């Protein structure tokens, strides 16, 4: 419980937090960024988030069947940043996410399961959908469950190489590379927010100046 309080983690549903405008600072003057997680069901997206936020891995968890966000405050380069990590929480079983899931996203973490080849093959589908909504946000690829399949760390993968996406070999079970993955994603999200390159973001900035 203390770890949860120290990390200021807040879970909430999509609808209750949809009013937050990630293109603006929070009421407290903090920078706010949105990091989305994508990948097939049961690849460990929620477990990775829990490991990063509370450093506690729970082997059993019931699906919430709803979009979920994990709110966290971090200090990056002496700047307080409010980070919302968006988790599919079961909706990915429909092989597509609602456009609102991608709206105003600043970075994306694509996750696949080192023990299930199909989850790797499906990354291309998720990536194409991501780029349809967010053409230019930074993207990261995470190979989860390396504690079960250590040999995968010696392999190279065509998907991240083809799209020039950094790859991280991680384990939600023992925490390997989890902090680095999420910290790098947040830092990239901040850089993107300060210098957006998506067409929609540029249009919004121009409208705000007029």
Automatic annotation (TrEMBL):
Record key words, sorted: Nucleotide-binding
Name of the protein in its database record: Rab-like protein 2A
Keyword set includes Kinase: no
Domain of life the protein comes from: Eukaryota
GO terms of molecular function: GTP binding; GTPase activity
Native species: Darwinula stevensoni
Pfam families, sorted: Ras (PF00071)
Family: Belongs to the small GTPase superfamily. Rab family.
The keyword Nucleotide-binding appears for this protein: yes
């Amino acid at each position: 419980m203390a770890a949860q309080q120290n990390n200021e983690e807040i879970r909430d549903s999509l609808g209750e937090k949809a009013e937050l405008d990630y293109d603006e600072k929070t009421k407290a003057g903090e920078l706010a960024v949105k990091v989305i997680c994508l990948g097939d069901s049961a690849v460990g997206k929620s477990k990775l988030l829990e490991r990063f936020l509370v450093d506690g891995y729970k082997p059993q968890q019931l699906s919430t069947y709803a979009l979920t966000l994990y709110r966290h405050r971090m200090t990056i380069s002496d700047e307080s940043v409010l980070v919302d990590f968006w988790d599919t929480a079961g909706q990915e079983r429909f092989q597509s996410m609602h456009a609102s899931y991608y709206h105003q996203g600043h970075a994306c973490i694509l996750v696949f399961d080192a023990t299930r080849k199909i989850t790797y093959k499906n990354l291309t589908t998720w990536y194409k959908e991501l780029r349809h909504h967010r053409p230019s946000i930074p993207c990261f690829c995470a190979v989860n469950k390396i504690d079960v399949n250590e040999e995968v760390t010696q392999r190279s993968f065509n998907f991240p190489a083809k799209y020039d996406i950094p790859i991280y070999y991680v384990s939600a079970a023992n925490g390997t590379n989890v902090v680095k993955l999420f910290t790098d994603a947040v830092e990239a999200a901040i850089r993107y927010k300060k210098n957006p390159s998506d067409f929609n973001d540029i249009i919004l900035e121009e409208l705000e100046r007029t």
